Write a sequence for this structure.
């Protein structure tokens, strides 16, 4: 496979930035709003945004079960910030009715790094990303409280897990799509090519 087709879930969040970063990493990227738009995709990005709203919209648009099925299909999925929350099997500090798509055996704490005015940027050493640290943008970011045996921790910041991979699913607390550095997206595109 030379140019994989990767969707970006476009119910809510920073969709455009992911479309640009995926295109820069040599993927054909397209927004996804309806279940039928998952057909023919080689991979999927779940962007940052507001996870509670994303969860409600996934239910309202009939996307919840199709997205869970996509994750279970083995096709690669990458979640950033709210997307990390959405691919977690368990959540802390979430509404009791909040649904996730699952995919990584981890417990994620929502808004763990603080509120909007406590957002920050930091350089992160991430396993599998050559060329030195990646610049992470943390906006009301979650962190990973714990992971199961099948999940690999790829990065930590200030003692907290901020990047995880389990099989076909990748997740980061931070937003690499906001930095102009497309190495994390290139890493994901390589996951997609390998899976295909």
């Amino acid at each position: 496979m030379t140019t994989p087709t990767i969707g970006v879930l476009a119910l809510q969040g920073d969709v455009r930035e992911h479309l640009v970063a995926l295109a820069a990493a040599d993927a054909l990227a397209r927004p996804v709003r309806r279940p039928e738009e998952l057909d023919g995709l080689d991979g999927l990005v779940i962007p940052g945004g507001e996870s509670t709203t994303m969860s409600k919209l996934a239910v309202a648009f009939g996307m919840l079960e199709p997205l869970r099925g996509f994750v279970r299909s083995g096709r690669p999925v990458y979640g950033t910030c709210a997307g990390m929350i959405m691919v977690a099997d368990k959540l802390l500090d979430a509404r009791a009715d909040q649904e996730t798509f699952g995919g990584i055996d981890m417990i994620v704490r929502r808004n763990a790094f603080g509120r909007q005015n406590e957002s920050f940027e930091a350089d992160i050493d991430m396993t599998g990303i050559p060329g030195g640290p990646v610049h992470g943008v943390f906006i009301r970011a979650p962190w990973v409280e714990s992971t199961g045996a099948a999940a690999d921790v790829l990065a930590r910041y200030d003692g907290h897990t901020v990047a995880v991979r389990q099989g076909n699913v990748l997740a980061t607390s931070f937003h690499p799509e906001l930095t102009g550095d497309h190495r994390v997206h290139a890493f994901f595109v390589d996951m997609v090519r390998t899976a295909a």
